[in-house]
Amino acid sequence: MNPVARNPRPNPFIGPRSYRPGEAIHGREIETRKLVNLLCAERIVLLHSPSGSGKTSLIQAALVPEMRDRRGFHVRPAARVNRLPPAPINAGNRYVFSVLSSLEAAFPEADQIPERELATMGFRDYLARRPRPADREFELFIFDQFEEILTLAPADTAGRAGFFAALGELLRDRTRWALFAMREEFLGALAPHVGPIPDRLSTTFRLDLLDAPAAKKVLMGAMPPGVVFKDEAADRLVDDLRAVQVQQSDGTMRTEPGRYVEPVQLQVVAFRLWANLSPDDQSIEVADVTALGEVGDALGAYYAGRVAQIAADTGVAERDVREWCGGRLITKQGIRGQVPMGPDQGLRDEAVRDLEDAYLIRGEKRAGITWYELSHDRLIEPVRKDNAAWFEANLGLFEKRTRQWVAEGRPDGLLLRGKDLREAEREAAGGRSSIDEQDLLERSIRARAARQSQSQALRRVRVLVACMLLAAAAAASVGWKA
């Protein structure tokens, strides 16, 4: 049944995207109050968090409305540094141009400054053209996903230096406030660049993932008038989503309640739960959570949709994306594995970035190397289950045999023979083969050649023995006649 058709009421949960301005965000009331107070007191704040904690949501749906309501503040649109000027325009500084392009979004398209002109401006020129309203004494600049200053063009040291110098000049005016938001694994890499900024971004605020009480507030607070999310149903859902796998001393795995819930996973599952309700349901009960089926099914469906989209967007084969997630990021013991970023990471960079943007994986920087892993233990079984179903439905015999051969340690007993080997040779000749498939095919061909060589040698021995027996018989006949 189509879940959207079953419950046509507007879904109060947002799914995997960020909250937008004007949408009510729940479960972050304490963080919002602390961040607003810190920003007002210190003027310049660096907000950092693990990937997927909801920084953008907190900024757009909570912090911006709070700051706009404060007397004397003009809040500029959240800016990014990720946009290049369109060809053939050359900007004086690509990062300054990107920020100014973001700020222009506050104005009607017909009134926006042409990009060719915008590309030649610095912050001072732009603010002379776009001053804050006369009744506002202060203005707030927001730089979202600020880690992009480090990741988009790592070799552009001159451009970064020019941008930070411009930022320092902008923020030396004490009527200007600034919030920088970034993923916390990039804090160390940012440190060498912040010298020109007043206070060197020394005032920081950490946003964590949702703990269990906050996750329950998200579920209950999102309910429209007249609908109740029952306490025990919320507990059931939250406990399932925060479950983690803990390895015991004997090597076995045990499921235990973790401390945190991933905001994206909570929204994905809750979105599906609401869609499955009947149009006249006025409460969400434990039975509704149970009827949802395994929470992993919702996560598996989300994983399947995102992987298919990533394959379509990047041109990377969906099978490769799935094998990387299931084979490299999940160990044989059923726990999360890690893959270092680099030439041997096993998947093209653009596909890895898209998986990270979809909050399916997260990167952690250690000793200058970024290590990728699944974003949460709760994804392990959904990824395995959905991969198994997809491989069964989409792989040919040769591909399936290869997966079995690799899973069982590449034994000689599973090498291809006879009809299966001939079929594998035809499949390999007709399209691209993976490294494992090539390995299985080459070993099977070598084994066949060895068998054929052994068979030929055996035939030669048999012929020689037959000839010797005939010669012996002839000799015996001659001797008898003599």
Report on the architecture of this protein.
By secondary structure, this protein is α/β, with parallel strands linked by helices. It is 50% helix and 12% strand. It has helices at 3-6, 29-42, 55-69, 94-103, 115-118, 123-129, 148-151, 157-171, 187-190, 212-221, 231-241, 263-275, 286-291, 295-314, 318-328, 349-357, 380-394, 397-407, 418-429, 435-481; strands at residues 44-49, 73-75, 138-143, 176-183, 204-206, 210-211, 228-229, 243-247, 253-257, 260-261, 283-284, 339-340, 361-366, 369-374. Strands 2-3-4-1-5 form a 5-stranded parallel β-sheet, covered by helices on one side. A 3-stranded antiparallel β-sheet has the order 12-14-13, with helices on one face. Helix 14 (295-314) runs antiparallel to helix 16 and helix 19 packs across helix 20 (435-481). It is elongated. The termini are far apart. The relative contact order is 0.09.
